[in-house]
Amino acid sequence: MKTVSDSETPSHGGTRCIARRTVLCAGALAGMEMTGLVQPALAQAENERPKEGDLLVSVDAEPPAALAVSDIPLGGPQVLAWPMDPTGVVRKGSRLNKVLLLHLDPATLTGVTSERAAEGVVAYSAICPHAGCEISGWDAGQKILECSCHFSHYNPREAATVIDGPTPRAPAALPLKVENGKLVVAKAFTGRVGIVPT
User: From the centroid of its chain, how far is CA 86?
Assistant: First the structure.
């Protein structure tokens, strides 16, 4: 009687025979998954979105140092930052984690923007929802944010509402708080970061 090796997969009526070893291995793996011996791959901390309790560090800082309110210039321009988890892992594995910080007069912040701010510092995704460019422009006279790629403008005092330009929506906000004198993420982004697929 002929046995079929793992490399041989004869066809019978259009279906393929599965080698005995393959079936045994698959069964063993399924059993190990059910007993917890095999765990799914975990996401890397540097790629994860900002989480409650993360600190914020300047994108240019080496070594990374947690930012305080006083590190963000009052009246602009914005400071670009990465979130950093409490163990010191900087979440810069994805450009979608880049945050813009802006220090404004707290009396000028309206509605929900005031609730999300920390002593006048507001935080938004630095990625424009239109084409994924970085929101790098700042109009000091009008105190508005600008995406220099296609000239979308946002009002940072009113939840970064769209003033004009081709962008379909405001960038997601990142609620902040102050702990031990440092800026800390209070909650996750308020919406989707980056471009919304159509």
Answer: 16
Cis? peptide before 77, omega within 30° of 0: yes
- How far is 44 from 132, CA to CA, in rounded Å? 23
Percentage, residues of the chain above pLDDT 90: 74
Output the pTM of the full model.
0.78
Rounded-to-integer distance, Cα 155 and Cα 175, Å? 16
Cβ 69 vs Cβ 178: under 8 Å: yes
CA–CA separation, 106 and 104 (whole Å): 6
Domain locations along the chain:
1-40, 45-185
Q: Cite the DSSP H helix spans in 36-170.
A: 111-116
Extract the runs of DSSP E, i.e. beta strands, from 63-189. Answer: 79-84, 99-103, 121-125, 137-139, 144-147, 152-155, 161-164, 176-179, 182-185
Q: How many residues does the chain have?
A: 198
pLDDT tens digits, one per residue of 45-89: 899 999 999 999 999 999 999 999 999 999 999 999 999 999 999
Strand order in the sheet with 137-139: 137-139, 144-147, 152-155, 161-164
As its CATH architecture, domain 45-185 has: 3-layer Sandwich (2.102)
